[in-house]
Specification:
- The complex is a heteropentamer of chains A (about 350), B (about 160), C (about 120), D (about 375) and E (about 170).
- Chain A is built from 13 helices and no strands.
- Chain A has about 350 residues and is an all-alpha fold.
- In chain A, helix 1 packs antiparallel against helix 2.
- Chain A is globular and about 60 Å long.
- Chain B has a domain of about 90 residues: NADH:ubiquinone oxidoreductase Nqo5 subunit (Beta Polymerase, domain 2).
- Chain B contains 3 helices and 7 strands, in the order αββαββββαβ.
- Chain E is built from 6 helices and 5 strands.
- In chain E, helix 3 crosses helix 6.
- The chains are: A mainly alpha (about 350), B alpha/beta (about 160), C mainly alpha (about 120), D alpha+beta (about 375), E alpha/beta (about 170).
- Chains A and C meet through helix 2, helix 3, helix 4, helix 7 and helix 11 of A and helix 1, helix 2 and helix 3 of C.
Chain lengths: ~350, ~160, ~120, ~375, ~170
């Protein structure tokens, strides 16, 4: 049995766990299962911490853009503010609507979280720091993150609330429209790598900064920009936050959700934000590649948080688009542009005009 | 046209319909007959020298003796202001709707009907909108109105 | 052994599904232990800005949203074809490039037709 | 596509909704994203201000009327004082008139800054909201140092103003308007050069001139539709005829014009304040006759002034007693919300929100 | 399920149980107190001061308070402004639709007893405590942002003193 995580930097911990399980006399099947489940729990823990951090960070960034301080009173610069929020949400009542669609209403937040969580199976956190290097890596991420839209439509429909329904419908229309430019931007890179594996993609950019795909002029920057725009839409953030437009739809698809179920949507939103930024890092910014003095996962985190910062700056600067403008932007501008860029990339690759 | 000129113009031209009132300060104030209200309003709007095309305000009044409905109109093109009122006895509080002349008056008439109980004929949408939907305590702006939970400011 | 390794890797997805669902359900359970639970009629009504909701919200919704879903399906199928093309592009060379350009152009005729027909305009 | 019929549904927007600016309720009939029919339901803030005023003395009416339109309380103070002064034919000292103009214009700027922030927030940009309110605080400080209140001032009284400005007022005021006129570039830079903002506001919710006049729309909304009608010029009150300022006028009557017009009005107000500060004479601040137990002689008048939302009017009837016989307050928003169903339909719900925001409706003015 | 309601019954019997109980109480109270999300609800003048409190100079976010537009996700309803008789049932509905535990701050004179509209007004509800239970009253017409923030801090202190079952269903 080969461990996909064998060379993980966490490996000592896992060898210990695995040894323990083997000593207990468990069969290989059980050992594998329990290890993977443990790995899942670790990833969940990391993501939960990251989400707590990102929420706090976003509040601080927003505050400083707006010449405020943001959370200040709870800990140094309010560092445990979001922890308190989580603790509060744990104690909040779970309001159920009598006329809801029971199954759909219950499973929507679970599915929403799952869609965000599953992307981390193939996320290359660092050199050899990956749960499973699936050979369809990037395709898998693109496929699995689209699940979010199903959960949002489920939330909208299950709530039996018109605002929620409108929010769910909007999110469906938005995510499907921006899925195409996003995938095609990614394809432009795949043409060069010749593999869908996340590890291969990162390795193709190893070395100095100019090997990163964002610097592969002229198609690289275009692909990066189109990807970032589409990713902002995928992550439902301003200027594309119409599914939960507060001023129009109160809170959009999660109007009726409270307590832990709402927390799951909230968590998923920030995990999604991190996911799209991490994918951008992997595809365009060289993933974990960097100078030696910082460990590879450090580079990955720095670059990803940089992209997150960019998306946050968008959010606190731009007004919101209208639904028809959003669609027109996707179909009339972004999709033709990305396809043209794909063809351009193909031609350049064929002619070999790149370094 | 100054205020005096406007007052004398109206007295001259519509003197048989509109009687000037002394109580009106600053802008000219006239009193008109209830049954000629629509007619006068239309004339004021159509008159070449007046063109009262802009409706400012309608105000119901309970003077302790009778009701009044005061119309405040203005002219944007000629830059004029004019008030005119109708006097309505308590037992026959009814005016004709002026929506055909000034569409803006619709809600003001609704309000007057709701708070004073002055009926507006041909209004078309005389429904409650300021008071609670289940209001059953009459017309609160009338001077003699009272209700169990209505507290008056005590006199010193 | 090679195949088995591949399978193990895909198994990780299954285990992550189990782990993820388990964790979420566990937090729900934990919250259930602590949180108050006090439903009554007013609370269980759908929220509509503090007013009584008028009519049902499960309705035949405006078809505008579905149009985009349909267009998406067409393009998504195209993208599915593009994936293997992109992976194998390095080996296939000029033929693949020209072929795919033609493929994309044909689809774009469709898009422009829809554009001209006003499908992309939200009416 | 158009003949494919789908079900329309009814949504309540309000009374508790982030973008109805208070407690307005709009019953929307919607077809998907489009608003087919609007039915405004008002009265959630009907506080019977008129009834309360009938049972107060003249001086006691002023603080009650503060609550009539709390965003520009100074105008409410002023319009009632002006109505009483017109009935009583009372003289107002020169200095008081200047102070009134300064306060009214400062309040107009404060109101427009609030509008700027709230509109930006309704269109989805949260940051301008805080920028607008940040500069508004400067003006609130000025009011606070003059009359001790942040929102409901009770400053302009019958026959003058309640107290003189402190020494520090003038330099502070000059500084504040200097900061605001510098920050105007920021405001415009943040939104006017933003393509999303332009797309969301240009050509959206056009209010035609004829409709605006027919429904008694006034103030910036009317001027944005291309009608040059400002009571400060057309029906001059106070001492506005002594100052040199322009009336900005829009062309299209869309959301952008309404927004832009208010920003330009801030500039004009700054001009007026500077002139008023320069020409501020010494002297009394109150007519000697003005006392707490003031009684107006019999008479009646409709007095209107131009506040930040449009025509604010008081119909005041005095029968010579201690208390006014009738105080009818008219706010511009009453007409604005009345005209909404006539031009706000057949648009996206997002446009409706933008439209509602740029009409700058404030509910106490509607419900009173 | 509300298993927590049975916790004191069992834990107090075992040695050290009271300590565990107090710790649990403290931790849970901290969470509720330090994360008060308020409902975006304002009716009249006080709403403007509420907005000012959220804005740069005063900054509600410092206390960890952010606004939510839907009552399902908010913990606190700041009744900012006059509640009229027409609005009263809607306020009750809003309060009902909030998820528990929920808190109420009555901001301004109008919400306490009708304020300037106590006399002579036929339409104003004289005090919101006829409609919903109130935790903190903040006087003023309108109260200054500082007093609003102080009221919120008082509410936080009040929550921190709550017993384990105070906020469970009555």
């Amino acid at each position: 049995m080969i461990w996909p995580i064998a060379t993980l930097e966490l490996a000592p911990l896992f060898s210990w766990l695995r040894g323990l399980l083997v000593d207990l006399g468990l069969s290989e099947v059980w050992v594998t299962s329990i290890s993977y489940l443990a790995l899942g729990a670790i990833i969940f823990g990391v993501l939960a911490l990251l989400a707590l951090f990102l929420v706090w960070w976003e509040r601080k960034i927003a505050a400083h853009i707006q010449q405020r301080f943001g959370p200040m009173r709870h800990g140094w610069h309010g560092w445990y503010q979001t922890l308190m929020d989580a603790l509060k949400l744990l104690q909040k009542e779970d309001v159920v609507i009598e006329s809801r669609d029971k199954v759909v209403f219950f499973w929507a937040p679970v599915l929403c979280f799952m869609a965000a969580f599953l992307a981390y199976v193939v996320m290359p956190w660092g050199e050899n720091l990956i749960v499973a290097d699936l050979n369809i890596g990037i395709l898998y991420i693109m496929a699995i993150t689209t699940f979010t839209v199903i959960s949002l439509v489920m939330a909208g429909w299950g709530s039996n609330n018109k605002y929620a329904l409108l929010g769910g419908m909007r999110s469906a229309a938005q995510v499907v429209s921006y899925e195409i430019p996003m995938v095609v931007s990614v394809l432009t890179i795949i043409v060069f790598v010749g593999s869908l594996s996340m590890v291969d993609i990162v390795k193709a950019q190893s070395g100095l900064m100019f090997n990163w795909f964002i610097f592969k002029v002229p198609f690289g920057p275009i692909a990066f920009i189109t990807y970032i725009i589409a990713a902002t839409a995928e992550a439902n953030r301003t200027p594309f936050d119409i599914p939960e437009a507060e001023q129009e739809l109160v809170a959009g698809y999660n109007v009726e959700y409270s307590g832990m179920k709402f927390a799951m949507f909230f968590l998923a939103e920030f995990i999604n934000l991190f996911t799209v930024s991490a994918v951008a890092t992997t595809l365009f910014l060289g993933g974990w590649n960097g100078w030696e003095f910082i460990p590879s996962w450090g580079w990955f985190l720095i670059k990803t948080l940089g992209v997150v910062l960019l998306l946050m700056l968008f959010r606190w600067t731009y007004p919101r688009l209208r639904v028809d403008q959003l669609m027109e932007f996707a179909w009339k501008f972004l999709i033709p542009l990305t396809f043209a860029n794909l063809i351009l990339g193909g031609i350049i690759k064929y002619l070999g005009w790149h370094w | 046209m100054t205020r005096q000129e406007l007052a004398s113009y109206i007295v001259e031209k519509y003197g048989d319909l509109m009687k000037p009132l002394e109580s009106g300060k600053y802008d000219p104030l006239f009193v008109v007959e209830v049954d000629k209200l629509v007619d006068i309003a239309q004339k004021l709007k159509d008159d070449e020298n007046l063109k009262f095309d802009y409706f400012c305000n309608l105000c119901g009044v309970d003077t302790n003796e009778n009701f009044e409905a005061v119309y405040n109109v203005a002219s944007i093109t000629k830059n004029l202001r004019l008030d005119f009122k109708v006097i309505l006895p308590y037992d026959k509080a009814e005016v004709e709707s002026l929506q055909s002349v000034w569409p803006a008056i619709g809600w003001y008439e609704r309000e007057m009907w709701e708070l004073y109980g002055i009926n507006v004929k041909n209004h078309g949408n005389l429904t409650r909108f300021l008071l609670p939907d289940d209001w059953d305590q009459g017309f609160p702006m009338r001077k003699n109105w009272d209700a169990p939970d209505f507290k008056r400011m005590p006199e010193k | 052994m090679e195949g088995a390794v591949g399978m193990t890797e895909y198994l990780s997805v299954a285990f992550f599904i189990i782990a993820g669902t388990g964790i979420v359900l566990f937090t729900f359970f934990l919250a259930r232990l602590i949180r108050p639970h006090n439903p009554y009629k007013e609370k269980s009504m759908p929220y509509e800005c503090a007013e009584d909701p008028v009519g049902d919200s499960w309705i035949k919704f405006n078809n505008r949203f579905y149009i985009f879903a349909l267009m998406f399906v067409i393009f998504d199928v195209e993208v599915v074809f593009l994936f293997p093309w992109a992976v194998a592009f390095g080996e296939l060379g000029l033929f693949a490039l020209v072929e795919m350009v033609i493929f994309i152009l044909i689809l774009f005729f469709g898009l422009f037709y829809a554009w001209k027909k006003g499908v992309l305009k939200w009416v | 596509m158009a003949d494919l019929r789908t079900e329309e549904f009814v949504v309540n927007m309000g009374p508790q909704h982030p973008s109805t600016h208070g407690v307005c309720r709009l019953v929307l009939t919607m077809d998907g994203e489009k608003v087919v029919k609007i039915e405004p339901v008002i009265g959630y803030l009907h506080r019977a201000i008129e009834k309360v005023c009938e049972n107060r003395t003249y001086m006691q009416c002023i603080p009650i009327l503060d609550r009539f339109e709390y965003v520009t309380s100074m105008s409410c103070n002023y319009v009632f004082s002006l109505a009483t002064e017109r009935i009583a034919e009372m003289e107002v000292p020169e200095r008081a008139e200047y102070l009134r103009v300064i306060m009214l214009e400062l309040n107009r700027i404060a109101s427009h800054l609030l509008f700027y922030g709230v509109t930006a927030m309704d269109i989805g940009a949260l940051t301008p909201f805080l920028y607008g309110l940040r500069e508004r605080e400067l003006i609130i400080d000025l009011f606070e140092m003059t009359c001790g209140q942040r929102l409901t001032y009770n400053y302009i009284r019958i026959g003058g103003v309640s107290r003189d400005i402190p020494k520090e007022f003038e330099p502070k005021c000059r500084e504040a308007i200097k900061i605001i006129s510098e920050k105007m570039a920021d405001y415009e830079g943040l939104l006017n050069e933003n393509p999303i903002w332009l797309k969301r506001t240009k050509g959206v919710a056009v209010l035609p001139k004829e409709l605006a006049i027919a429904y008694g729309v006034s103030g910036p909304v009317l001027r944005a539709s291309g009608v040059q009608y400002d009571l400060r010029k057309n029906d001059p009150y106070c001492i506005y005829d002594r100052f040199d300022f322009d009336i900005p006028v829009g062309q299209n009557g869309d959301c952008f014009d309404r927004y832009m017009l208010r920003l330009n009005e801030i500039r004009e107000s700054i001009k007026i304040i500077t002139q008023a500060l320069d020409g501020l004479p010494e002297g009394d601040i109150k007519n000697k006759k003005s006392r707490m137990t003031y009684k107006a002689p019999a008479g009646e008048t409709y007095t209107r002034i131009e506040n930040s939302r449009g025509e604010m009017g008081i119909y005041l009837i005095s029968d010579g007693g201690k208390k006014p016989l009738r105080v009818k307050a008219k706010g511009a928003s009453f007409n604005h919300i009345q005209v909404l169903p006539h031009f706000g339909t057949n648009m996206f719900i997002a446009d409706l929100v933008a439209n509602f925001a740029t009409l700058d409706v404030i509910m106490p003015e509607v419900d009173r | 399920m509300g298993l927590i309601k049975k916790v004191p019954v069992y834990t107090e019997k075992i040695p050290g149980g009271a300590f565990v109980l107090t710790s649990l109480e403290t931790v849970l109270n901290q969470g509720r107190a330090k994360s008060l999300w308020y409902l975006l609800f304002g009716t009249a003048c006080c709403a403007i001061e509420l907005m000012c409190t959220g804005a740069s100079r005063y900054d509600f976010d410092r206390l960890g308070m952010i606004f939510r537009a839907t009552p399902r996700q908010s913990d606190l309803i700041l009744v900012a402004g006059t509640i009229t008789k027409k609005m009263a049932p809607r306020l009750r509905r809003l309060y009902d639709q909030m998820s528990e535990p929920r808190y109420v701050i009555a901001m301004g004179g109008c919400t306490i007893n009708g304020g300037p509209f106590y006399y002579d007004s036929y339409a104003v509800e004289k005090g919101i405590d006829h409609i919903i239970p109130v935790d903190i009253y903040i006087p003023g017409c309108p109260p200054r942002p500082e007093s609003l923030m102080e009221g919120c801090i008082h509410l936080q202190e009040k929550i921190k003193k709550q017993k384990l079952l105070d906020w469970q269903e009555k």
